[in-house]
């Protein structure tokens, strides 16, 4: 069996300067790249997820409530949907797009270009353990980690390589992940204004 790194939504719109920026996002991108360079043999496989919106309906709000609706972000074909330039994607073997026509937080709701879902891809590559990094700790990282554990993967979140939106929602997310048997390593980046 093998392990994999799942890089969650390290996209321009979720980093500083983006339409739904999470403070510390660019630092997370650079930190992931440094880790991949420093420990090239740590993971047998590396995959990534992307928020990838075409028309996600009520997921975009005008005005957004920042609970169920959000500013327009990660629209297919925009620079905001692209990976942050500080993220080295050279090791990424597959990208799983999520949320084209509805809200989707978990990478396990996504699919590769050929339609394969993340869980099937991981199983096809004999992965039984996953580490997660990315944005945002309290939303898409949380949802992806919970689904990974539900799917039977031994799941660890490297919190020092995640950026969080807010302390309150991060506390809820950490409790939920811990309660689901997810191993939490380190502390997330949480910067309040």
UniProtKB/TrEMBL annotation:
Q: Which UniProt keywords are given for this protein, alphabetically ordered? A: Hydrolase, Metal-binding, Pyridine nucleotide biosynthesis
Keyword Hydrolase in the entry? The reply is yes
From the UniProt record, give the pathway where this protein acts: Cofactor biosynthesis; nicotinate biosynthesis; nicotinate from nicotinamide: step 1/1
Is Transferase given among the entry's keywords?
A: no
Q: What is its EC number?
A: 3.5.1.19
Positions of the Isochorismatase-like domain: 4-183
Q: What class of enzyme is it?
A: hydrolase
Member of which family?
Answer: Belongs to the isochorismatase family.
Q: What is this protein called?
A: nicotinamidase
* The organism of origin for this protein: Micromonospora parastrephiae
